[in-house]
Amino acid sequence: MTTVSVRPFGSTGDGKAVTQYTLKxxxxxxxxxxxxxxxxxRMVIPDKNGVPRDVVLGYDTLEGYENGSSFFSAFVGRxxxxxxxxxxPLGGKMVRLRPNAGAHHLHGAFARRVFDGEMTDGGVVFxxxxxxxxxxxxxxxxxEVRYTLTADNALVIAYTATADADTVVxxxxxxxxxxxxxxxxxxxxxxxxxxxxxxxxxxxxxxxTGKINSVDGTALDFRSEKPxxxxxxxxxxxxxxxxxxxxxxxxGALHRFATAKSGSTGIILTxxxxxxxxxxxxxxxxxxxxxxxxxxxVRYPRYGGFCLEAQHYPCSPNYPQxxxxxxxxxxxxxxxxxxxxxxxx
Length: 345
Prior knowledge:
Elements (H helix, E strand, L loop, with lengths): L2 E9 L5 E8 L5 E5 L5 E7 L5 E3 L7 H6 L7 E2 L2 E5 L3 E4 L2 E4 L8 E3 L8 E5 L2 E8 L10 E9 L4 E10 L3 E2 L3 E2 L17 E4 L1 E7 L5 E7 L11 E2 L14 E6 L7 E7 L5 E7 L3 E5 L25 E5 L14 E2 L4 E12 L2
C-alpha cells in the first residue's frame, strides 16, 4: 500500500503557493513531488546495505528550483527538446515560438509553472491549462500528469492532454539520476544499457538534420551494457551525451528500454515507455547551474547525473519523415513512462 501526505512548500516569487507531496510504499521507497514544475524532488530507496539513498538530483528549497537552470526532474513542455529556429509549419502556416536557446526553442515553460495538485490512490495528479499562444503555441492545452508509486518500487508517470485547436505536443520528465552516493561524484562508472539501434543525426547546434544514423561503431551504442564514461570523450561536439536515441520496439506499447546500475550502492534503475525515443543527457553543463547549490549543499559536477527523457524526436514538426507530434483538436495525447528501482542481491 502506498501512502500519500501533503505539506506546504513555500511560495514563489510572484506569490503562488507550492505544495510538496510525499509518497511511501511498504518497501521503504519514498518519492517527494512538488507542484512547482511537477518536479520529482526526491526518489529514495534503501541500498544494498539498507541505507536510504536519494537517486535524483535537485534542490532542498523552492528558491533553488526557481533560480536553477538545469530542469532538475521537471515536467517539460509543451515541446520537450529543441525546435530549430523556434518555428515550424502547421496547417499551412508558420508557427513562431519564443526563442529561449539562442535562436532555437527548448522544452517550453512548464518547468516554471505551478500546477494544481490532487492526491489520488497511490499518488498525485497535477493539472495545468496552458493558455492560447503561450510561448507561441497554438490553442489552449489542458494537460495533466499523474505520478503513482507502486508496490514493486516503480514510479509511473502518465500524461494526457487535449487542445481546442491543432497544435504540437511532446512531454517528458527531465529527471537526472545518480545511483551512487550523492557526494558530488559523477555517474561515469554507472553501467548503462539502452535498446536503440539508431539515433537522429544533428548539426553543431544539436539540432536534428533529418537523417537517421545507426549507432554501430559509435559512442552511442549502448545495446550491450557499458560504463557511461567508456566512450564519452569521443563526443567533443556536445561535450558528452545529449542525443536522441530511437528506441527498438513498437511505439504506443509500454516496453522496457533501458537499465542502469551502480556497483557502489547496488541500486538498479529499469525504465519503460510508450514513446519512440529518449534523449540521453549526461549533465554536460550542470556545473554551471544558476542556483547556488543542489541538495545537501552539494554543487553538482559535470556528468553529475544522467537523464533518460522519454519523448518524440526533437524538431519533429519540421521533419515530415519523423513520427508526428501534431495533436488535433478534440484528440487526446497520451504517454506513459516508468522508472523502477531495485537492488542487486
